[in-house]
Every structure is written in structure tokens, then in C-alpha cells.
Amino acid sequence: EAQVTQNPRYLITVTGKKLTVTCSQNMNHEYMSWYRQDPGLGLRQIYYSMNVEVTDKGDVPEGYKVSRKEKRNFPLILESPSPNQTSLYFCASSFVERLREQYFGPGTRLTVT
Amino acid sequence: KNQVEQSPQSLIILEGKNCTLQCNYTVSPFSNLRWYKQDTGRGPVSLTIMTFSENTKSNGRYTATLDADTKQSSLHITASQLSDSASYICVVSDNSGGYQKVTFGIGTKLQVIP
Asked: Which of A45, B27, B63, B86 would disulfide-bridge B2, Cβ 3.0–4.6 Å?
């Protein structure tokens, strides 16, 4: 089944404790992206990647890191999480073409205390 | 700055009734517009996509319209069902350079009640 998977789905952590949220897709998509979704703000892009070893900042990259060593994986790293990073996170992937449809993962709900 | 505004923010309708959701955008240069459905606690799923030359597109009981001149789109849901309860997000892509940047609306939260 074609899908985007994220792990973990739910995470409660404390300020400053490094964490990684994994994202994997099995559709051979070149493009992958991370978003956060907060009430009243909609989806905002954190980082995106056009292909392996190619990453770039989105609209709200501060406090986040990403890597793209393999085509199928795009982990999101929070080196020192803070409470303002409490949010619902979505990973998405697509082909790099003009009318590409982004396929979203199931989401990761992160709480930083 | 590219913006996508949706209205209403929330809507409650009776099962079986029709409804229309609105999307206004200021994205330029325009490439395409998508409507996504997002069930609570899940990722968005694409319903329709429309390019500059398309005025209307249907997907079952969902019909999207686009007026590229006024930069407005609507999503019409016919004969609503309880399973239509979700947030509907308008997403507009611009065609700047060789890469498309997407701008998301905040969404309209629809609740269909029996």
C-alpha cells in the first residue's frame, strides 16, 4: 500500500531533550516536506527536500533540523525542544512535477513540557 | 505576501443538505489550487485540483469551482453525509521559478449532524 508513515504518533517530552520524528514513504517520491499545524494558523512548512541531500528551509525552520540521506526517509530533529514546539506535525511527499499531489502522513502529536 | 483566506471558519449543517465553502487567494503567479479534506487527527487528503484554465471540477459529491480573474474558489458539497464532517483546506501553489511553493488556508471545519 502506498503510504507515508510517521513515528511516533504521539510524544510527550521535556524541554531540552533531543528527539527525532521519523518519516518514510514508499512511493519513490523525490519531494518530501515537514509541516506543523496549530489551531488558527493552518499548516506551515518547516523544511522541505527536493531530493536526496537537497534540503531547504520553509516558513518556520527555527529550532528544527532535517536530513535526507535516503530517498524514502526524511527525519525531523528537534535538538532542544521548547514548549512553543508543541504542535501537530505532518510529513508529506510527492513527485516533483507541476501538478503534484502531496500525500500526507498520519501526523505526530508532540507535547513539550 | 501570498495569502489564502477561507470562509466560513466553521459550519454546521443537517445531513442531506448542501453547502458551499469559499476560498480567496492572493497567490501570484498562480499555478494550481487544491482542496483537501482533513479528518480529525489525520493527514489531509486531496479532493480536487484545478489549474488556471479550469472553471469547475467534480469528484463525486464534491464540486470545486475556480474564478482565476477574481482569485476565488468554492467547494460545493451535495447531499451531505455524516462522513463529510471534517476540515476542508484550500491550498494554492505559485509558479515562481522552477519550484512550486504552496500556501495553505486555515480551513473550514464542517460538521454534519443527523
From this structure: B27
